[in-house]
Amino acid sequence: MKRVLVAGGGGFIGGHLVKRLKKEGYWVRAADLKLNEFSSSPADDFQVGDLRDPQFAREVVDGVDEVYQLAADMGGAGYIFTGEHDAAVMHNSATINLNVLELGRIAGVRKIFYSSSACIYPEYNQLDPDNPNCSEDSAYPAAPDSEYGWEKLFSERLYLSYMRNYGIEVRVARFHNIYGPEGVWCGGREKAPAALCRKVAEAPTGGEIEIWGDGLQTRSFLYIDECLEGVRRLMDSSCAEPVNIGSEEMITINGLARLAMEVAGKDLRIRNILGPTGVRGRNSDNRLIQQRLGWKPSEPLRKGMELTYRWIEEQVRSSLPS
Asked: β-pairing, 251-252 with 45-48?
């Protein structure tokens, strides 16, 4: 039985990945600062600790064949784009990657998956909300719009350097806005789909919700199940170059809010206010992943939003005073 470590196994994507790997018959160790918030983990071994600590990292990589490295200091626009957390984001995430990679190498780990981000793409290619360029070969000359993106780009190069110099098999995916049930939905680190579902769920019928910026900025959003399918296909492939894992169904943020309203059956007003927004346009370019893996995400956004809204509505309802 293959033994794997999911670093960041207490988080949203990592928690879902642990469940997927267990269903596929793997022995799974999860490592994170905390246990999963919304469900119990089926991991064979769950170690709670800080991957910035070399001793803890050394312990959790010991005896595993493969590592899925998803641990990072991250969040939504309200966390990443204010500039208030830049030093922590860069220091914490870089330290985790340096520890997991070097100590994994020493321990004899044979293959590592690294979760990068679409935030590595240059801001100058994402100024037109209707025509962003996020093909994998557009990453250079580098000009990410946040320190989070710069750290992800550095870490991509770190992992690929270890592959060249030490022969560790490395797989790198650039995630585009992964969402779904059991993700952070309040508190400032939530992503746009969760934030908008929460706002719609909390708003009284005929009320209004606030959206940062003019709402015309565009994004694509990928449901968690398709993200995991892409990760597993990539990990089992021979593709050693970074690839996008995201949806090509682009939508404005105002449009996403209206979709959440349709799913909820609510008629609400949108009030656009000042706030951090990131780049004007971003959309996954799936030509390379289809070429390399013979697969690309295809589920419609509405289907995932229906599932996500129902789950967040339950969280909102359960958080209300009885």
From this structure: unpaired
